[in-house]
Amino acid sequence: MVVNSIFLVGFMGCGKSTVGQQLARRLAWRFIDLDEQIEKTEGRTIAEIFAQGGEAPFRRLENEALRKIVEESARPGGRVIALGGGTFVQPANQELLQRARAITVWLECPVEELLLRCALMTNRPLFRDESNFRALYELRAPYYRQATFTVPAGNSTPDEVVDRILSLKPFQGLVCCT
Length: 178
Description:
Blueprint: E1 5-9, H1 16-27, E2 30-33, H2 34-42, H3 46-53, H4 55-73, E3 79-82, H5 91-99, E4 104-108, H6 111-118, H7 130-144, E5 149-152, H8 158-166
Parallel strand pairs: 1-3, 1-4, 2-3, 4-5
Helix pairs in contact: 1-8, 2-4, 3-4, 4-5
């Protein structure tokens, strides 16, 4: 099996973008942040998209962007893709990734750690308060558990998380850069 794409999933603040950038650098692959792709295409921030249209229009844009990335993943060249926190929870997106036989890695992080990491962030449209944050995490966690692999990401440096990902069987043969 040739691995040329890794999709990182997980709740807001788990480190998908930070770990994804370092993982891509180590593999000499391209890094793609799904939310950044959407913002670039739309010319608006995710927060603006939510404020102007709500969650449903955003999820349609997200699915379109993910579809393009999955199609691109069939071509040569490696890529690490950081999905938005709610991307993997959407049935259409999960189905798309399953049909493509995508390898997904859940960066699992305790909710307490996530709260600490996200407390001062202002660009998270679904982070209203601690109670809603916890409820959203509990709602999404069962979906994240369906990822191909689970890698602990709490209380770890991004390099430690990258090492854990690269120690997984499908990635052991990949040529890595330091």
